Amino acid sequence: MKKKFKTLKIVVLSLVLGLVANLAVPVFLNNSSQALGELDVVWDGVADGAPIFVVNNMLPGDTETRNVQANNGGSIARLVSVKGTRTGGIGSDPKLETVLDIVISESGVDLYGGTAGAKTVADFFADSLDDNGIMLSILSGNDSTSYDFTVTFPASAGNDFQAKSVIFDITIGVIVSENIVINEVYYQVDGDHGLDSPVDRGVGAGNVSAIISNNGAGSVNTIVIDIDNRCRIVQTNNSNIINNLGIDINTGGNSAGGNTGGNVDINSGSASANVKIANSVNQNNSAACKKPVQNHEWIELFNPTDEIVSLKNWTITDNSGIVRIIPGNRKLKPGQFALISRDNSTWRFWDEDPIAIKIPLGKQIGDGLDNGGDRLILSDAQGNLIDALSYGDDLSIFNPSVSLVTLGSSFERLVPGFDTNVAADFEERNPPTPGN
Fold first, then answer.
1. Is 168 exposed, middle or buried (0-12, 13-18, 19+ CB in 10 A)?
2. Closest C-alpha among 16, 29, 3, 11 to residue 82
3. Residue 231 in contact with residue 291, Cβ under 8 Å?
4. Pairing mode, if any, of strands 357-360 and 337-341?
5. E-strand spans in 289-435?
6. Distance between the two ends of the chain, CA-based, in angstroms?
7. How far is CA 325 from CA 240, 290, 313, 391, in A?
8. CA distance 134 to 203
9. What InterPro entries has UniProt attached to this entry (predicted)?
10. CA distances for 338 relative to 68, 78, 94, 310, 433, angstroms
11. What is the pLDDT of residues 301-343, one digit of tens each?
C-alpha cells in the first residue's frame, strides 16, 4: 500500500530576469547521466557536468525548450514522473514563477500545461507537492522516450518582474510501491483456460441425492451425476428376482374296484400344491470419486522493491473471510513475479514467464473469486496489511472499485508495482499476462 517516488535525475533550473531589457537568463545546471536500476535520463546535446542551457536576452514573448531522453533498459514498464522544487530566487511578490508558463510534452502531445491546461512554474511547484509528483507517461520495457520542457516569458509580462529570479530543482523519477503488490487478478475464466470457481459455475456446496424406485425384474439402473467435472458419482442398481416353485401332491386314500377287466373305477384322495417364491436381495453398486474442487483462477504478486522478500506464512483473504496461507518459504526477488493458484494444473493453459514463481495453495483462493465482485487482502506473517483491492460490487477497499472485466480477461496494474491505492491503478487486460 505504501509508495515512493524514486529519483532518476535532479537538475537545477535558474531563471533570472534582467534589469534593463526585461531579459531572463535561464540555466539548467548539474547535467549528468544518472540511472535508477535499468532506467536513465540524458539531457539532449549537453555534456555531463555542463549547464542544460543558458539563454541570454530572453524578451517577453520568447520561449525556450530543452529535451530530455528517458531510457528503460529493463523488461518491466515504468511510470515516469517529475517534480519541481523551488530552492531560491530574488524578488518579492509577485514572484517570477507566477508569470512564467511551463509546458511538458511528449511526441508533440502536451502532458502538463499547454493544451492539457495552462500552468505556470508556480503551479509546477504546487502540483509537485503530491507524493507521486506530476505523472507523465508509461515507459515500456526496453523502450525510450523524450520529454520537452518549454518555458515561456509571456509578452504581457511587465516591469514588475525586473531584477527577479527563481531557482528550482527538476527531479525526474518513477513511481513504485515500497511493498509487494497484488499486480494482476484473473477471475473470469473462459473455456480455453480451465474452469471458473464452483460457485460461479452454479455448483453449490450441498449434498446431491438420487432415488431409484419401481424397479422391474432384472432391471439395471445407472445414475451419473456430472457437475461440470467437479466430481463424478456413478451408482448402479441391480435388481434380480428369482422365483422357485415347489409342488407337493398327496393322494392318500386311493382305492380301485372292478380291476379284473372291463371298466375300472379309481377313487383318489385329496391333492394339494405348495408354491414358494424366493426373491434375492437387491444389490446396489456405487462409486463416489474424491476428485478435488477444480478452479483455475489465479492472482499475480510483484516485488517492486530492492529487497528479497520472504512470503513465508503470508496470507490471502477474500470476501468470504477464508484465510489461505502461502505455503513454504517462497522468496520473491526484486522485480520478480509470483503466480498463486489452487494447484499447478492451472498453468497447462498458459504460456507464463518461467521466471515467475508458482505457488499452489492446495485449495482455491478463499471460496473462489466471485465474478460479480470480491476483494483480496494480502497480509504478512505478522498480520500487517501489505496490499488490498476490491472489484465489482465489493466497495470495501476501493470506492469506486475496479471495474468488472469480460470473460477471459484479467485486470492488471497500469505498470507493475504502480500503486496509488485507487481503482484507477488497474485496467482490463486481454489477453492476461501472467508472470510479466
1. buried
2. 11
3. yes
4. parallel
5. 298-302, 309-310, 315-317, 323-325, 331-332, 337-341, 357-360, 373-379, 385-392, 410-413, 426-429
6. 20
7. 53, 23, 6, 22
8. 48
9. Lamin_tail_dom (IPR001322), Lamin_tail_dom_sf (IPR036415)
10. 35, 19, 54, 12, 12
11. 999 988 999 999 999 999 999 999 999 999 999 999 999 999 9
Q: Which three cell numbers stand for residue 104?
A: 511538458
Q: Where along the chain do its domains lie? A: 3-175, 181-197+295-429, 206-238+280-292, 243-278
Q: What is the mean pLDDT of residues 50-61?
A: 61
Domain 181-197+295-429 is in which class?
A: mainly beta
Q: Give the sign of the dihedral formed by CA 53, CA 56, CA 59, CA 60.
A: positive
The three three-digit cell numbers of residue 149, written as one number: 520542457
What's the confidence (pLDDT) of residue 292?
A: 58
> 3-state DSSP call for residue 68?
strand
Of residues 162 and 184, the one with the higher pLDDT is 184
List Cα–Cα distances, 383 to 144, 380, 386, 389, 398, in angstroms.
40, 5, 9, 17, 20
Report whether 145 contacts 78 (CB < 8 A): no
State the pLDDT at residue 39.
73
d(CA 32, CA 42): 7
